Amino acid sequence: MKWITLLYGSLLASIILLESCQRETKEQTTQEISTYHNPPEFCADSAFYYVQKQLTFGPRYLGSHGHQQCGDFLVKELERFKFHVIQQNFDATLYNGKILKARNIIGSYQPTATKRIILAAHWDTRPFADQDTIRKNDPILGANDGASGVAVLLEIARVLHNDTIPLKIGIDIIFFDAEDYGEPTWIEEKNYSQTYYCLGSQYWAKNKHIPNYRAYYGILLDMVGARNATFTMEGNSMEYAPKIVKKVWDTAERIGYSQYFVKQETPSVIDDHYFVNRYGGIPMIDIIHYNDDNNEPFFSDWHKHSDNLEQIDKNVLKAVGQTLLHVLYNE
Ligand code: AHN
Ligand code: ZN
Question: In CATH terms, is domain 36-328 a member of 1.20.1510.10?
Answer without folding.
Answer: no
